[in-house]
Amino acid sequence: MTIIFWDLPSTVGPWSPNTWKVSRYCLNLKKIPYKTEWVEMPDVAAHCQKLGISPTTNKSDWNIIHALPAIHDLSTGIYLSDSVRIAEYLETQYPDGPQIFPRNTIGLQIDFEDCLNAKLASLWEFVVPPIWHILNPTSQVYYRTTREKAWGKTLEDITPSGDDRAGQWKKVEAGFSGMAVWYSKKSGGGPFMMGSQVSWVDFVVGGHLMWFNKAWRDDDPKWKAIMLWNSGMWTTLL
Amino acid sequence: MTIIFWDLPSTVGPWSPNTWKVSRYCLNLKKIPYKTEWVEMPDVAAHCQKLGISPTTNKSDWNIIHALPAIHDLSTGIYLSDSVRIAEYLETQYPDGPQIFPRNTIGLQIDFEDCLNAKLASLWEFVVPPIWHILNPTSQVYYRTTREKAWGKTLEDITPSGDDRAGQWKKVEAGFSGMAVWYSKKSGGGPFMMGSQVSWVDFVVGGHLMWFNKAWRDDDPKWKAIMLWNSGMWTTLL
């Protein structure tokens, strides 16, 4: 079995939290061989339409949207997009070995991303603008246009400044502390939400951390701060 | 072992989603004998302070708040408030029999209430005002004062009207459909989030449903609608 895995390129490797969840984490957990192919953002829709890959979402305010990750499983001939759909497919098609959603927790696992997005809503303003700098020129134009339309302001104006910035960053810290409470509750040790057993929610958190890291790089004070928060627990999920 | 369980009274029995989670659901699941004692809302703070029960929350914008549920475990002498703290205590102190947080899922379970509150945020406007009608007079005054302060408007103005009402109710329906997706994912049948295994999140949903039922009563069109949504799946969680 081999899987073709389509990812979004940058000057510093994969950066999307959604592609990270599937590629590095799920495929590696299940030890499924895969080959990454890169698609620049303006080419994603045509790429998916050509291969008959269903839209990832159908948001009424954005029209139909094709997005990565997407996969082609050469063993079954299946084409698929959307990180959760891909994870469910991999779990069903390749049930041996470690599970992505162990112990019938899939409902509990997939609701988590809504929680994380609510907890870390303030963080997007700090992450979305700097990603532009690591994209290749062809994706930069597309990225700027779509994000500025979504926010209704220029990329340069999305990140708050002054008191507003400090307040939003405090909310980010509170969001991480809230997640740390959830992580602190399990029994029996281990760094993961289910103790020694890694699962989807850890990939969601890990994928988001990788996104922040790519946006800011290792020596940014924001990144250094997160790595120190909550007794350094977030470093173990990378 | 016997537990004294403090609950909020009304003219139609228990109504608080937080006390429902602990009393009917957790204590019954673990088959722990308990005796309910009723405390009117204006008396809760003095009641808890007299018994040395810690505040349930410390919200900076509300000052310190004592709230029910609270318990006194006659076997251990412990006094405790807050539904999650009580559930964790019962699980640790009475580990035999069914678990409230099975299979090391406590972190996944307790994040769920944030998700539910986000999904059903629009619902509060429809539930908070009618609860006033089922309270005893001594609690009605307290309830009106605190809720009107929190919303910044009269109880009568909290529920939206006209187009706004229809729009907010559409969001409620979408919220239930979102939760139904989470519930639909498990394997092996059974009505619960973890299939045939009931757990905390089902108590959270069930407690909220009981709250809506007490607010509206059985013949309210809103209640009838929810009972029909998502193929009637919510009736099974009551």
TrEMBL record, chains A, B:
All residue ranges annotated as the GST N-terminal domain in the record: 15-93
Start and end residues of each Glutathione S-transferase UstS-like C-terminal domain: 108-238
Name by which UniProt lists this protein: Uncharacterized protein
UniProt xrefs under Pfam families: GST_C_7 (PF22041), GST_N_2 (PF13409)
Gene3D superfamilies on file: 1.20.1050.10, Glutaredoxin
Domain of life where this protein originates: Eukaryota
